[in-house]
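COURSE: Structural Biology Practicum
ASSIGNMENT: Worksheet 4, Part C
STUDENT ID: 0417
INSTRUCTIONS: Below are two proteins. For each, the amino acid sequence is given first, followed by its structure token string. Answer the questions at the end about the second protein only.

PROTEIN I
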Amino acid sequence: MEVQSVISPYEELIAYEILMASGYSTKKIINTISNNDTISVKNILDKDLSNKLFDEHDIRRNIEKHIESKIGTFSVVIKDQIQYPDTLKTANHPLGLLYYRGDLSLLNRRSVSVVGSRKPSDEGLRRAKKIVKKLVRENFNIVSGLARGIDTISHQTAIEENGTTIGVIGTPIDQYYPKENQSLQDYIAGNFLLLSQVPFYKYATEHFKAHRYHFPERNVTMSAISEATVIIEASDTSGTLIQARECLRQNRKLFILKSCFDNPRITWPHKYLERGAIKVEDFDDVIEALNK
């Protein structure tokens, strides 16, 4: 009987960093893994090395040197580990590797993403606080992206209500954006869970304008670890709509507040309603739909 070799989290980490630094996207890695449940990130790297698509050695040396000073300040979880969360196993597009700080077991709790505009209205902030309070009282874990606006108030309200929260960031696990949320991010990492899929070396060596592309990928992760997403308010060009699309692709529930439909300046709510989103007339509608 063939014995399957144990995959080293460190080797998976290095392979992930090498692939990303060599031009791979998170989406390409996810799609490759999705098409073959038994493949690891290192398998992808080994295949590309055999095809001589790039020279690994210089990149590996630079990456290992770059990461060396960071070892001990973060952890990684890979899809073949027993700790790999069930929520990601059931996703249509499972991640191969996640960087994290904090309590990974929170990923096995029922979780809902609460997201929206970085420049919300006062009424939007009030609605976000109200829905988070109700979700916390029903023992749901609150997921958001640590951005300004709705994300920040969602995390803060979950903490104030003695709930739990997960922050998913679009920077490496040791970076802060926006800077004013540094203390909030550290508090979440120290008491709850902070996640990232952004590789250290690529982020450090790419042009700063490329950093923005990591944030849409962050929304894919948020949709995957949540059984549902609630959109409080968003414009037609908001990055929140990336999560809306990914939520439906992942077969997760998507809730859109009625107030979004009442806004004549935007058209996206009706488009997503046609694709399977749920219009929320009352906050209790969210709880009822989640418990069906």
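PROTEIN II
(use this one for the questions)
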Amino acid sequence: MTTLKALYPAISPYATGRLKVSDIHDIYYEEVGNPNGKPVVALHGGPGGGVTPSMRQYFDPQLYRIILFDQRGCGKSTPYASLEENNTWALVEDIEKLRQHLGIEKWQVFGGSWGSTLALIYAQSYPRRVSELVVRGIFMLRQSELDWFYQGKGANWIYPDAWEAFLEPIPEAERDDLIKAYYQRLTSDNEGARIKAARAWSLWEGRTLSLRPCQQRIDTFGSDAFAVAFARIECHYFINHGFFSSDDQILLNIEKIRDIPGVIVQGRYDVVTPMRSAWELSKAWPKADFKVVQDAGHASNETGIVDALVRATDGFAKNV
């Protein structure tokens, strides 16, 4: 019987820094592992989620130079929870500025959920700077995906109890467009309304992320410190359709990354980003190795997801 791969041991950064990426925004970044190792940039989810220490542990620290950063408005980046000059294309350019700042010629790009969206868009924008792609919980920010999770067209049938709590801040008369209704509250001058909406939005995702409930994650998602940036920035991106010119932005530009080696990891029972999107991406990008984890949902720390991701990064570790 094959032994499942686990996360590498916890590790601290050997360097941290801040990079000014616009007149408004500074982003926090950190470097972990081997300064002379294979470069990889790991992109967090959300948008608005921020870096977590466990993100450092999907890579062999003896072989990888691991770069992580907080995207605009979240984590340790400033200004906190800011929506100004905060969009997908700005984040793509931030990744590229960080690569140049660190003197990296080419790097592996790793990301899950929204991190998979951003990884794919960055790779399509700068394919010659990407050595490999490792993406999980595929989210292409299409209207059908938003409808499934945020408009009562799928996920609410599986989590009706959590859905009821998600609906609670929104009057029935406004429930025909829940993203719009939430956006009005998350950008309100009323602090109480903002926080109430942020917690409800964030908890809906926290309660549905994994196949088995995780109270620690639910507590984190329900905390004001996390929820305010997470909900505001996420809703901002969603009401603007990812700032894409087409609903199928990623699939329509798949030719740009068709020859990049990649691994797609998807939980069979992922309710947040259902498997159909990963399936369609794998069909359009046959060079990528498609791994379906049969006993997992969306969360990156589920046992089978960890195994598949670590196997992917181990497999690419010695690629030049």
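ANSWER KEY EXCERPT:
Q1: The longest strand covers residues 26-33.
Q2: The chain has a mean pLDDT of 97.
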